Amino acid sequence: MTDRNIRSILIVGGGTAGWMTAATLSRILGPDYAKITLVESDEIGIIGVGEATIPQMATFNRMLGLDEDQFVRETKGSFKLGIQFVNWGRAGHRYFHPFGKYGLDMKGVSFHAYYLRLRQLGEAPDVDEWSLQAMAARDDKFMRAIDAGNSPLSDIAYAYHFDAGLYAKFLRRYAEDKGVTRREGKIVDVKLRSEDGFVQSVQLEDGSHLEADLFIDCSGFRGLIIEQALKAGYTDWSQYLPCNRAIAVPCASVDAWTPYTRSTAHTAGWQWRIPLQHRIGNGHVFCSDYMSDDEATAILMSNLDGEPLADPRTVPFKTGHRNRMWVKNCVAMGLSGGFLEPLESTSIWLIQSGLSRFLTMFPDRDFNQADIDRYNRIMQTDYEEIRDFLVLHYHATERTDSPFWDYCRTMEIPERLAEKMRVFRTHGRAFRENEELFNDTSWFAVMLGQLMEPASHDPVADVMPLAETRERLAHIREAIANSADYMPKHRDFIREHCAA
Ligand code: FAD
Fold first, then answer.
1. Which CATH code of 3.50.50.60, 3.20.20.100, 3.30.70.980, 3.40.50.300 fits the domain covering 8-51+163-233+320-367?
2. CB of 40 closer than 6 A to ligand 1?
3. Dihedrals φ, ψ of 40, to 5°?
4. Nearest ligand 1 atom to alpha carbon 44
5. Which of 99, 145, 249, 347 has fewest C-beta within 10 Å?
6. Rounded distance, CA 164 to CA 141, Å?
7. Which atom of ligand 1 is nearest to the CA of 42?
8. Annotated active-site positions, please?
9. CA 110 to chain centre
């Protein structure tokens, strides 16, 4: 230890971001490096709507050393193989964005190229048939990968749905066991040091002050320190992602436990459906320029599977991010850093990536500005890349049935996305750019799913004789169908391994 090391850390907020931060720092730094305190207000509570995730969440759980069955049991969670999109390309149309890859490795040429070659000859059915995740989801099936050689069953990518309130409690127990101190109380003021504007302490309603070397702002949309005290500023992306409100309501479960999130487009936004063990989470994300709260609520309530279990709750938001997520001795994690709407369940991943990037740039008390600048630049790129993927869903649509969709279809889009779309439209090529979150399978699934039809296929696919291409793709398709048949029902799998 040097005498410039961080000695105390104050995490402000106890939602998903606050407790993920507390769990991570207590795990990685251990009990003796720095004193870690988390302060949260029971009166304010948490947003409690982040319930769907992506496969990278398993990496986070592994880093913490969590037992997956226990995690699913205690959060009354379920498994997720992808997202079903309904009414997005056009009313009545649906497609599946699966986790994992389509097909198998095809000796250096992407599977997508061979698939498109057959599709353009009118010989290939729905691309879902080459995704084990999509085929299992069709039949409400789920299992974890097993050691089965070349079988598709050896590689099953999945994520989770969970109850956000239970997740915060679960991580709280974990972090407290590792020495994190929790303080209940409402912060009413933030004190900055007069000499350099660094955060000195926060003041609670009862008059006490909490000091620290490092502050992690997990206070949610309000950005208590990062914005209200440090004035980080906000980049507003409403021109690309115009939805700005959500109405959320849980409802009773139904018999089939679907192992996927469903996103159903409506006339001014879309509705999520997230199945948990004890209820289904639902919400209608919409743009208030095109729809009133009453209308959005009525649409939501008339599209539930079961009885509502609570009154609908409205959550206003603005998509975008803080201009700087790390300012002086304060880093924003979670909603205090920014928000991209939950269409591809990326917010919890952004907390995860924020934490892992922060740990690679962990400061001492000198707070090197070059490290801070690098962190801010990388996080901004993460946000921009995800933004572009989300915008694709809205922009590549044939819907002409409402002013909202007219706006989305004709809006100006970021140049990086425009280029990806041009490249796909010619030869059907989809790429993962640098280290961006979504890979070529995701781009391919959503571009094709949103009814973008390439003019031609990648000419490299012609290296394989047509008869051989047909034979290989038929073989893979059959292996996937057999594997999906073999899998148990999602509900049975949960009952056997991780029922609450
Ligand atoms: P919050 O949950 O709001 O927590 C803020 C904390 O700060 C609370 O503990 C609060 O008490 C505390 N606090 C605030 N002010 C004070 C104060 N003055 N004094 C003391 N304590 C204070 N993400 C996904 O990954 N998947 C999804 O499916 C998904 N769906 C979403 C749907 C909607 C409509 C929205 C809005 C978000 C969704 N998200 C989703 C995002 C996800 O909910 C958040 O990223 C996640 O919950 C983290 O929230 P948070 O901890 O930053 O904020």
1. 3.50.50.60
2. yes
3. -145, 155
4. 11
5. 145
6. 24
7. 11
8. 80
9. 26
* Residue 264 Cβ < 6 Å to ligand 1: no
Our answer on whether the CB atom of 171 is closer than 6 Å to any ligand 1 atom is no
Is residue 17 marked as binding? yes
Full strand arrangement of the beta sheet holding 209-211: 187-192, 199-204, 209-211
ipTM above 0.95, yes or no: yes
| Nearest CA, atom 42, ligand 1 | 50
Residue 243 in tokens: 């939805």
Output the CA 194–ligand 1 centroid distance in Å: 31
Q: Which atom of ligand 1 is nearest to the CA of 218?
A: 52
Closest CA to 313 of 374, 405, 245, 248: 248
Probe residue for ligand 1, chosen from 19, 24, 47, 245 as the CB with the greatest number of ligand atoms within 8 Å = 47
Q: Is 448 one of the annotated binding-site residues?
A: no
Every domain range in the chain assigned CATH 3.50.50.60: 8-51+163-233+320-367, 81-157+245-316+385-500
Can you tell me which atom of ligand 1 is nearest the CA of 337?
Answer: 52
246 ligand 1 Cβ < 6 A: yes
Residue 16, marked binder: yes
**Type of residue numbered 376:** N
Ligand 1 binding pocket includes 486 (Cβ within 6 Å): no
345 lines ligand 1 (CB under 6 A): yes
What secondary structure, in 3-state letters, does 16-67 show? HHHHHHHHHHHHHHCCCCCEEEEEECCCCCCCCCCCECCCHHHHHHHHHCCC
335 carries a ligand binding annotation:
yes
Would you state the structure tokens that stand for residue 347, as one six-digit string?
Answer: 């917010």
Task: List the chain pLDDT tens, one digit each, 500 residues.
Answer: 568 999 999 999 999 999 999 999 999 999 999 999 999 999 999 998 879 999 999 999 999 999 999 999 999 999 999 999 999 999 999 999 999 999 987 778 899 999 999 999 999 899 999 999 999 999 999 999 999 999 999 999 999 999 999 999 999 999 999 999 999 999 999 999 999 999 999 999 999 999 999 999 999 999 999 999 999 999 999 999 999 999 999 999 998 899 999 999 999 999 999 999 999 999 999 999 999 999 999 999 999 999 999 999 999 999 999 999 999 999 999 999 999 999 999 999 999 999 999 999 999 999 999 999 999 999 999 999 999 999 999 999 999 999 999 999 999 999 999 999 999 999 999 999 888 999 999 999 999 999 999 999 999 999 999 999 999 999 999 999 999 999 999 999 999 999 98
Atom 9, ligand 1: which residue's CA is nearest? 14
Fold of the domain built from segment(s) 81-157+245-316+385-500: FAD/NAD(P)-binding domain (3.50.50)
